[in-house]
Amino acid sequence: MPDNPSKPSNNARLAGRRIVITGAASGIGRVTAGLFIEEGAKVILLDRNVDALRTAFEGLDAVIAGVDITREEKVAEVIAHAGKTTGGIDGVINAAGIMVTGPTAELSPQIWRQVIDVNLSGSFFVIQSCLPWLRRNEFSTIVNVASGAGLLPNAPGLAAYAASKGGVIALTKALAADLAPNVRVNCVCPGMVDTPMADGFRANVGNYALKRIAAPAEIARAMLFLTSLESSYVTGATLAVDGGRTFH
Ligand SMILES: NC(=O)c1ccc[n+]([C@@H]2O[C@H](COP(=O)([O-])OP(=O)(O)OC[C@H]3O[C@@H](n4cnc5c(N)ncnc54)[C@H](O)[C@@H]3O)[C@@H](O)[C@H]2O)c1
């Protein structure tokens, strides 16, 4: 393993790393941001809900910006400003996302476009805006939050969501090839996670080998692995973090 100029001298696994995290106001993104702060990262937190971001991270050392990730010009502006503030960007966590489910025949073009726009195009715009910074560093990382729905969409009503997440998995592989060796690009595929997004949905935990849904911290820890040097030889990977739902 090569020496890392930003390798921490203490046990913090992300010391000196500057990481953009989208969707940080809630759920998986929020818990990941908290974990990354604990692990020494300087975090740049993006969400369309800036009030929730402020409340969640009040008093903590974080750069906060309210932005809708589907608005590429605004995303570019916010990332350029944040990169200047922190002096660089070494990693991205794309956790912002929406889930809309429903009968395919009733799926409106607006909803279809919105789900693809946020989950797939928004993730791409964030990555693209961060690229000039990421490329300056030999050890940069991108982790996209896809979904088990992108691996095994075997429930009704998932057309738009599953297509967006399948797109995220393909985007991850394409970028891993494109951006190597400076930037490693991986994705996680959670099963159901206990967050506001999952409110009102009931998982059939009988389909999960571990017979339970995940806590957001369990997804965050997988992203810590993929963002830290512990995964220095991992790129283009699709990591199912789903209690064993999709392997059988
Ligand atoms: N919760 C689950 O069961 C589950 C399972 C698999 C995958 N995921 C994925 O994990 C990611 C995080 O989901 P979560 O469960 O934490 O959901 P959540 O609803 O708790 O959080 C999502 C966050 O993304 C933000 N967001 C949504 N659209 C945005 C936009 N256009 N611009 C900026 N911010 C935006 C929201 O404001 C919110 O803070 C999503 O990509 C989701 O698809 C979730």
Question: Would you give an account of this structure?
Answer:
With 248 residues, the protein is α/β, with parallel strands linked by helices. The chain has one domain (18-241): Rossmann fold (3-Layer(aba) Sandwich), CATH 3.40.50.720. The protein has helices at residues 27-38, 50-57, 72-86, 109-134, 148-151, 159-179, 216-227, and strands at residues 18-22, 42-47, 62-66, 91-94, 140-145, 183-190, 238-241. It has a 7-stranded parallel sheet with strand order 3-2-1-4-5-6-7, sandwiched between helices. The termini are far apart. Nicotinamide-adenine-dinucleotide binds at residues 22-23, 25-29, 47-49, 68-70, 95-99, 118, 122, 145, 147, 190, 192-193, 195-198.
Question: Which short descriptors sum up this protein?
Answer:
248 residues; alpha/beta; Rossmann fold; 40% helix; disordered N terminus; binds nicotinamide-adenine-dinucleotide
What is the share of helical residues? 25-40%
Number of helices: 7
Query: What is the CA-CA span between the terminal residues?
Result: 34 Å
Would you tell me which CATH topology applies? Answer: Rossmann fold
Just give the CATH class. Alpha Beta
CATH H level, superfamily name: NAD(P)-binding Rossmann-like Domain
Identify the bound ligands: nicotinamide-adenine-dinucleotide
Largest sheet: spatial strand order: 3-2-1-4-5-6-7
Task: Please state roughly what percent of the residues sit in beta strands, choosing from under 5%, 5-15%, 15-25%, 25-35%, 35-45% or over 45%.
Answer: 15-25%
Main sheet characteristics: 7 strands, parallel
- How many structural domains? 1
Computed structural class: alpha/beta
Number of strands: 7
Mean pLDDT: 95
The whole-angstrom Rg is 17 Å
CATH architecture: 3-Layer(aba) Sandwich
Overall geometry comes to globular
**Helix and strand string, N-terminal first?**
EHEHEHEHEHHEHE
Low-confidence stretches: 1-9
